[in-house]
Amino acid sequence: MASKTERVMSLRAVRQLHRVRAFYTGGVVLWAALTAWTGWQLPGSRQMWVSALLLAVFTGLLLMSSVWLQRLRATRPHEPAHHASSRKTLSTRRAHA
């Protein structure tokens, strides 16, 4: 069973990877559009190749972050992190006078 600190670090890592993956997705979309635009306007130019290189870099980063996120999801336990207490009380609680 994982300790509480490992579980918290795992949850933080998953949240951070979600943010990073969203950023890389935006980068892939942006550089794909710019590569297509530059390839249409100036085919074979240096700007097109730099744009294509940045598209490849962001695509690689997106794939790596997706793989890491998938691995972290696979290692997480299937039990809930927090156990809620039942709503029924075992005994009636009364304030002492």
How are the secondary structure elements laid out?
Elements: H1 4-41, H2 46-75
Helix pairs in contact: 1-2
Q: What is the rounded distance between the termini?
A: 45 Å
Major sheet attributes? none
Summed over residues and divided by their number, the pLDDT gives a mean of: 82
Structural class: mainly alpha
- Label the overall shape: elongated
Q: What this model shows, in words?
A:
- The chain has 97 residues and is mainly α.
- The chain is 70% helix and 0% strand.
Concise synopsis of the structure shown:
This protein is mainly alpha-helical and 97 residues long.
How would you describe this structure in keywords?
70% helix; mainly alpha; 97 residues; elongated; single chain; 2 helices
